[in-house]
Amino acid sequence: EGFCYLNDCVLAIRHLRNFFTRVLYIDLDLHHGNGVETAFYHSNTVLTYSVHKYESGFYPGSGDTGSIGEGRGRGYSVNIPLKNGATDDTLNQVLERTLGKVVEKFKPDA
User: Following CA atoms 103, 16, 49, 108 in sequence, which dihedral angle do they give, to the nearest 10 degrees?
Assistant: First the structure.
């Protein structure tokens, strides 16, 4: 799903997994990275981190803070939904407050 014919990010991450144990995927797109998140929702070797707009009626309508993964992947999906009107300063503040903690805890190889 999403705006791509092939989910090239998923293919790239699967290739990276041949060489690296833990891969961190960072999605700073306007839309939730639901395709990549879904592909790795049950995985504890790929952590998806998505900062995106999240409002009623806005595509794809997924990516709330409760979407954290399932099974072995529980806790390996991080969603930071933003309301309409978020600015570059908002994004910078979110990244400064959260991304370092995610990296420190997950300890990605790539």
Answer: -10
Identify any residues that bridge with 78 across adjacent strands, giving them in sequence order.
49
What pLDDT digit, counting tens, does each position of 5-46 carry? 667 899 999 999 999 999 999 999 888 989 899 999 999 999
Burial (0-12, 13-18, 19+ Cβ within 10 Å), 89: exposed
* Token pair recorded at residue 96: 């400064």
Phi, psi (rounded to 5 degrees) for 60: -95, 5
Contacts of 44 (CB under 8 A, 6+ apart): 72, 73, 76
pTM of the model: 0.91
Task: Round to whole Å and give the CA distance between 69 and 40.
Answer: 8
The alpha carbon of residue 18 and the mean position of all alpha carbons in its chain are separated, in whole angstroms, by 20
Q: Report the sign of the C-alpha dihedral through residues 109, 54, 28, 101, in that order.
A: negative
